[in-house]
Amino acid sequence: MTTSQSSAVWNGNLMEGSGMMRLGEGGYEGPFTKASRFETGDGTNPEELIGAAHAGYFSMFLSAILSESGFPPVEIRTTAKVHLGEGPAITLIELETEAIVPGCSEKVFLDHADKAKAGCPVSKALSAVPMTMSARLSM
């Protein structure tokens, strides 16, 4: 199996400082600040990156499960809303997925989406956080 690596550097104190995050071998490199994390500011934040990782892996995992069952998807779109609450703490992750899967019934799709949520490695890694999922087929 593989090992992936990302990095971050923070300069200064929380209120006035800033940082830079780098994913992998430079697939993304960008700034983050207190404003981009707790308010509305330029740059990204750790919660957005967690959401992107979760949405991406969940979509791939669901695709694999559907394909193995004879229902290869045309497209799977997933959004992961990562809620940051007091503490600060991640308090909730909401997965919303919509897929185009020819020949697949709603019931079979929902069963497979539930399996993907339970088996996705990122879902498992984040299992300490309450997680919801809504899934639907699109035509």
β-strand amount? 25-35%
Mean pLDDT: 92
The global form is: elongated
Instruction: Write down the Rg.
Output: 17 Å
Largest sheet composition: 3 strands, antiparallel
Portion in helices: 25-40%
By CATH, the architecture of the largest domain is named 2-Layer Sandwich
List the keywords:
single chain, alpha+beta, GMP Synthetase, Chain A, domain 3, 2 domains, 3-stranded antiparallel sheet, 3-stranded mixed sheet
Would you kindly provide a written description of the structure presented here, covering whatever features stand out?
Helix content is 34%, strand content 35%. With 139 residues, the protein is an alpha+beta fold. It has 2 domains: 33 residues; 92 residues, K homology (KH) domain (GMP Synthetase, Chain A, domain 3, 2-Layer Sandwich), CATH 3.30.300.20. The strands form 2 sheets. A 3-stranded antiparallel β-sheet has the order 1-2-3. A 3-stranded mixed β-sheet has the order 4-5-6, with helices on one face. Strand 1 and strand 2 form a beta hairpin. Helix 2 crosses helix 3. The radius of gyration is 17 Å and the shape is elongated. It starts with 5 loop residues before the first strand and ends with a strand. 21% of the residues are buried.
Give the gist of this structure.
With 139 residues, the protein is α+β, with helices and mostly antiparallel strands. It contains four helices and six strands.
Secondary structure blueprint with pairings:
Blueprint: E1 6-11, E2 18-23, E3 28-33, H1 34-38, H2 46-68, E4 75-85, E5 89-100, H3 106-119, H4 121-125, E6 131-137
Parallel strand pairs: 5-6
Antiparallel strand pairs: 1-2, 2-3, 4-5
